Amino acid sequence: MLMPIMALIIGLAVLVWSADKFVDGAANTSKVLGVPPLVIGMIVIGFGTSAPEMVVSVFASAQGNPGLALGNAFGSNITNIALVLGISALLLPMTVSSGVLRRELPMLLGVTLLAGYQLLDGVVSRLDAVILLVVFVAVLFWTIRQNGGTEDKFAADTSQAHLSAQVPLKMSIIWLVIGLICLILSSRLLVWGAVEVATSLGVDDLIIGLTIVALGTSLPELAAAIVSIRRKEHDLALGNLIGSNLFNTLAVVGLAGLVRPITVASEVLSRDWLLMLTLTLLLTAFAWRPKSWQGVRAARINRLEGGVFVAIYVSYISWLIMGVVLS
User: What's the pTM value of the predicted model, to 2 decimals?
Assistant: First the structure.
């Protein structure tokens, strides 16, 4: 038991570190090569912050642990909204003013409904995976096209948050490669440790994916959100979370299902997906509600609502743990 637990802890720590280095390397390389801030913010950074979930789920699926793959993706979405966003709003009420976010929230809701529809037959087939990936590509192109002629502040802030001053191209590429290699190796170590721990405790790998692995792979989003909130860059914090959930639902599940069809337990739809949908609906309702803030008509996610999100997360994790104890 000791070795798998150590592998789980080390894998999570290296995963978070390597994801940060990968994002920095990719963002700086893109900047040196003249990639627009919009593309860096919405694609490079969006991919980078979801890289832990993506690599872990692909390896889990390839190694025959579909519950871990799906649990990681859905669990990360739940963690992003209920815990990361909840803590962020508790620290400082969040104002939602960006038009980009107003378009992305309904998009996230639609993608969540699509994911639920695909779960009805109890399997995420390769056809389902292809549909998710096609929608993912369409979302990227649509987002870029909608903002292609403007200098989007959200995207610029997102890219700037991960750019170091005057980093040479060679050094940026080195960090990009090092981050990618460590990302892959740490993901394999993490998956092995998680599976071994689940087997030793007699716990389903879905539960491990929804809790330990999902929390670990969401640490980059939590760190980025706290930094953004301290800088009062509310749209940046919320935009990263929305973008991460879009990546998780479309790209992470899509790639994992493409590697190997994912058999879905009934409780995933009735428990985990339903909670993910509920949280997305709550977020949409809070963000779209007009309020006056500093003379500007904008929605605001206050501390009370942040507390509601955190309470939901604590209740959900407690429910999962109680189910394991009583089984």
Answer: 0.79
Q: Which amino acid is residue 28, in one-letter code? A: N
In 3D space, the residue among 66, 95, 19 whose CA is nearest the CA of residue 255 turns out to be 66
Give residue 199's domain range.
2-326
* Mean pLDDT (whole number) for 225-248: 75
Q: What is the CATH number of the domain that holds 282?
A: 1.20.1420.30
- Position 221 scores a pLDDT of 72
Q: Rounded to whole angstroms, how far apart are CA atoms 269 and 167?
A: 46
**Rounded to an integer, what distance in angstroms lies between the CA atom of residue 99 and that of residue 107?**
13
Closest residue by Cα to residue 185 from 24, 27, 17, 298: 17
- What is d(CA 139, CA 244) in angstroms, rounded to the nearest whole number? 13
pLDDT tens across 46-97, in order?
666 677 778 888 888 888 887 888 988 999 899 999 998 999 889 888 777 6
CA dist list (Å): 300 to 11, 93, 174, 189 = 37, 7, 41, 41
In tens, the pLDDT along 178-223 reads: 877 887 777 778 778 877 877 787 788 788 888 888 887 777 777 7
Number of structural domains the chain divides into? 1
Where is pLDDT greater, at 293 or 317? Answer: 317
Per-residue pLDDT tens digits for 131-154 = 999 999 998 888 767 655 444 444
